[in-house]
Specification:
With 313 residues, the chain is mainly alpha-helical. The chain contains 11 helices and 3 strands, in the order βαααβαααβααααα. It has one domain: Rhodopsin 7-helix transmembrane proteins (Rhopdopsin 7-helix transmembrane proteins, Up-down Bundle), CATH 1.20.1070. Helices cover 75% and strands 3% of the residues. Helix 4 runs antiparallel to helix 6. The termini are far apart.
Amino acid sequence: MSGLNNSVLNEFILLGLSNSWELEIFFFVIFFFAYVSILTGNCLIIFIIALDSHLHSTPMYFLLANLSFLDMTLSTVTVPKMIIDFFRERKTISLWGCMTQMFLAHLLGGSEMTLLIVMAIDRYIAICKPLHYTTIMNHGILVGSVLLSWTVGFVHTMSQMVFMVSLPFCGPNVIDDVFCDLPLVLKLACTDTYVLELLVVAFSGLLSLISFILLIISYTVILITVRRHSPFGLSKALSTLTAHITVVTLFFGPVILIYAWPVSSYSLDKFFSVFYSVITPLLNPIIYSLRNKEMKAAMIRLRNRHISSNPTF
């Protein structure tokens, strides 16, 4: 961390999404309501799972509640400042603020990546080994899996940030994005960062790509196994896995394109950054709640319980 003290620059300038005042107001309205929806939707999922005895004792929903927490927190790292910056002509972020933003983004992103893999394993056991599901996915395993996801996220972010904080920043300080991200900040360092850029590609890009491929293979194996053993259960398994495959694609797609794919257009980078930090956390509650019969049933039970406990005369 002491390397930051040797840096000449003490802030970065974010170019944001647009230079047009009218568009900035439009984006403010869109992103403000999107962020409120992210908080509301993910808090609602956590609230329902915590209060419904059937859901919070089910491994999949225990993991889903943790996914909602990660989504909500990941969005909070970047979106509130993005919203405030729509009213600022000069969008700045301190050097420490930039480093903190990148640290938290990769901590939460790495944790969510691991949690999605755990959720895929959970679905495999539930569908392919239903008689042993509750025995294998017991409370100790679930808590251990969540702790593992946070540990992996911490190792993932530290493996990159330990080099970032020692870099000197003494030249250009303009970041053509809506928040600080490793590839763009690396380019501003006053030293050769070729090796560090390869590390970012390896730790973030290739790791995400490999994880995504393994997840897709695992879901394919599940569907093939179900089809062989119970052709009638294929449609049910496919319905269950559709939500998971959609979430995995929405999460890993932008990450892979940002860190592993040689995208030269900064406008595309901005789009993927916004998609990763806003759209995915916004869609996850919709995917898991509106398409999920058990979540709908839990909502109805909680509503009926509230009505019965507060009768009107």
